[in-house]
């Protein structure tokens, strides 16, 4: 596993990665889908609906009998969970006193009934007290792969967001069947391991699926006032040969980088050039065929001098060694 603070890892549950809240036993005051909405919760003190105050979160009715409320989230990218954030922002007199989080790995596309009846749910976060109007974060030490998580609130109340940070771990057989894949994609296990500047937005956005729908869905740095340049380092899903690199500046009209380059390395080897310093155009999907690419498991994107980019795609195939390491990780996590 990548050894970095878990909050720097991608949120495997977020909606724009494909996450979904597939079940909640109660959503009387605020709907369950809000739990995985990208971005922080917002609050307008003037908004009231027919059911009371409108909250940007999930909120259940006041319990008058013993028990707890729960919501089940299907991760957009199954993987190893390294940390969970139970965010109670704006819930001050109606947050749950305690929460717990469990995980399970079920292949295929199980129904809600199958999920609720399944054996194999295991603890990620034991029943723990939380604070209101707070991002309550919990490190997770499980090494097991998870496809779904179950948030339980004891006994009731409201939660604004649920963040499930970790590293995706795809089935190696899936990558085999796909052939050439994006080795940097979050859903395949790509992880940002270094970044010079994330002033406006997270570099994890570069590796999300699908096209960016606005400038806010990319990575953008502050304006540089020195002679340096900004960069992002990415650990690939597996060691592989990158055949095509896509540097997408869509939506960045007046703040795209002027130039970019790519370098790669395998293990602790030397950095080697994959794409020399090359001019970029604003609001453009640049695709570059890389001639005779060497095997690499880490890639560094340098932008000159600064600016924003919507997506980074590194299409290629795992090497024999990379495929074997992915298989080892997959087997160990089951």
From TrEMBL:
<dbReference type="Pfam" id="PF03561">
    <property type="entry name" value="Allantoicase"/>
</dbReference>
<dbReference type="GO" id="GO:0006144">
    <property type="term" value="P:purine nucleobase metabolic process"/>
</dbReference>
<dbReference type="InterPro" id="IPR008979">
    <property type="entry name" value="Galactose-bd-like_sf"/>
</dbReference>
<dbReference type="GO" id="GO:0000256">
    <property type="term" value="P:allantoin catabolic process"/>
</dbReference>
<dbReference type="InterPro" id="IPR005164">
    <property type="entry name" value="Allantoicase"/>
</dbReference>
<comment type="similarity">
    <text>Belongs to the allantoicase family.</text>
</comment>
<keyword id="KW-0378">Hydrolase</keyword>
<dbReference type="InterPro" id="IPR015908">
    <property type="entry name" value="Allantoicase_dom"/>
</dbReference>
<comment type="pathway">
    <text>Nitrogen metabolism; (S)-allantoin degradation; (S)-ureidoglycolate from allantoate (aminidohydrolase route): step 1/1.</text>
</comment>
<dbReference type="GO" id="GO:0004037">
    <property type="term" value="F:allantoicase activity"/>
</dbReference>
<protein>
    <recommendedName>
        <fullName>Probable allantoicase</fullName>
        <ecNumber>3.5.3.4</ecNumber>
    </recommendedName>
</protein>
<feature type="domain" description="Allantoicase">
    <location>
        <begin position="18"/>
        <end position="168"/>
    </location>
</feature>
<keyword id="KW-0659">Purine metabolism</keyword>
<feature type="domain" description="Allantoicase">
    <location>
        <begin position="189"/>
        <end position="318"/>
    </location>
</feature>
């Amino acid at each position: 596993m990548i050894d970095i603070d878990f909050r720097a890892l991608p949120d495997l549950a977020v909606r724009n990665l494909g996450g979904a809240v597939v079940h909640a036993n109660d959503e009387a005051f605020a709907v369950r889908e809000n739990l995985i909405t990208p971005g922080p919760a917002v609050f307008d003190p003037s908004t009231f609906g027919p059911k009371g105050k409108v909250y940007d979160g999930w909120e259940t009715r006041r319990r008058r009998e013993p028990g707890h409320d729960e919501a089940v989230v299907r991760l957009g990218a199954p993987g190893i969970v390294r940390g969970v954030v139970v965010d109670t922002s704006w819930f001050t007199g109606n947050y749950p006193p305690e929460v717990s989080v469990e995980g399970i790995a079920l292949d295929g596309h199980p129904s809600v009934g199958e999920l609720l009846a399944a054996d194999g749910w295991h603890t990620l976060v034991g029943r723990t007290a939380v604070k209101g109007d707070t991002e309550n974060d919990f490190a997770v030490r499980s090494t097991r792969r998870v496809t779904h998580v179950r948030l339980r609130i004891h006994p009731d109340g409201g939660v604004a967001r649920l963040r499930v940070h970790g590293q995706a771990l795809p089935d190696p057989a899936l990558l085999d069947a796909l052939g050439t894949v994006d080795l940097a994609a979050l859903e395949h296990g790509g992880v940002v391991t270094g970044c010079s500047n994330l002033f406006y937005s997270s570099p994890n956005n570069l590796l999300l699926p699908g096209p960016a729908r606005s400038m806010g869905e990319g990575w953008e740095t502050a304006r540089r006032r020195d002679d340096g340049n900004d960069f992002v380092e990415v650990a690939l899903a597996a060691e592989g040969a990158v055949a095509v690199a896509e540097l997408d500046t869509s939506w960045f009209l007046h703040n795209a980088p002027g130039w970019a380059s790519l370098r790669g390395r395998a293990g602790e080897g030397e950095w080697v050039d994959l794409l020399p310093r090359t001019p970029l155009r604003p609001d453009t999907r640049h695709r570059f065929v890389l001639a005779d690419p060497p095997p690499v498991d880490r890639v560094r994107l340098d932008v000159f001098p600064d600016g924003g980019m919507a997506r980074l795609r590194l299409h290629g195939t795992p090497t024999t060694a990379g495929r074997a390491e992915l298989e080892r990780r997959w087997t160990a996590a089951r």
